[in-house]
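Supplementary Methods. Inverse-folding protocol.

Structures were first reduced to a discrete structure-token string of length 219. This string, shown here, constituted the complete conditioning input.
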């Protein structure tokens, strides 16, 4: 990993901050002695770094740190999710004085797939077991992905013991005990990041009414 260095004078925006890419990545601030003050991640490196020299808003507590910044280092990533993992790995290795949490803001979670006759479906878990998918960062993103997968692959309605409304919903969604193993295999293919399987499910999700959608893209 190589950091692109941007140098600025004490207490002022980095001279070359406007040259940072508008791409996801991780940045870190150093003082004049070269000590790392802070590590963060961004969807747009340029916008995020420049924001420290604007209105800090609810980040006003960082003003003393900003006054000490002498150098900014940044590395670009292919996605915001990759940036989140890089930030987490760096903070687990060493936490600078202005970072509050050792592993970043988001906790690791996993997705558990069950094809059991009694309780088939997907759940998000924080303690993995053998066969779970992950880890992923961001509990809400994973909950959204689980919800979206459940809409296009209704494994949760394919249990043996369904009655009343659940039985009606299963019929509407085309789920049945006979389809359970096929639904589980299709979900596993998406979670294994089979690009073809994921594309098919994404297209089906986009065909649903907008009010029924929930993001099924994996974090």
């Amino acid at each position: 990993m190589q950091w692109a260095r941007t140098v600025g004078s004490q207490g002022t925006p980095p001279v070359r901050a406007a040259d940072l890419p508008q791409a996801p990545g991780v940045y870190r601030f150093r003082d004049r002695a070269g000590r790392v003050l802070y590590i963060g991640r961004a969807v747009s490196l340029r916008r995020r770094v420049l924001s420290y020299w604007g209105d800090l808003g609810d980040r006003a507590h960082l003003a003393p740190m900003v006054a000490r910044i002498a150098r900014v280092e940044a590395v670009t990533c292919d996605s915001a999710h990759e940036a989140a993992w890089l930030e987490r790995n760096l903070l687990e290795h060493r936490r600078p004085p202005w970072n509050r949490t050792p592993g970043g803001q988001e906790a690791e979670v996993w997705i558990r797939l069950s094809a059991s006759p009694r309780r088939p479906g997907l759940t998000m878990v924080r303690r993995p077991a053998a066969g779970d998918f992950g880890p992923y960062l961001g509990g809400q993103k994973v909950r959204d992905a689980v919800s979206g997968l459940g809409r296009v692959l209704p494994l949760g309605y394919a249990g043996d013991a369904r009655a009343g409304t659940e039985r009606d919903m299963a019929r509407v969604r085309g789920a049945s005990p006979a389809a359970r193993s096929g639904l589980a295999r299709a979900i596993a293919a998406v979670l294994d990041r089979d690009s073809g399987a994921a594309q098919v499910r994404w297209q089906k999700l986009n065909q649903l009414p907008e009010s029924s959608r929930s993001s099924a893209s994996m974090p």
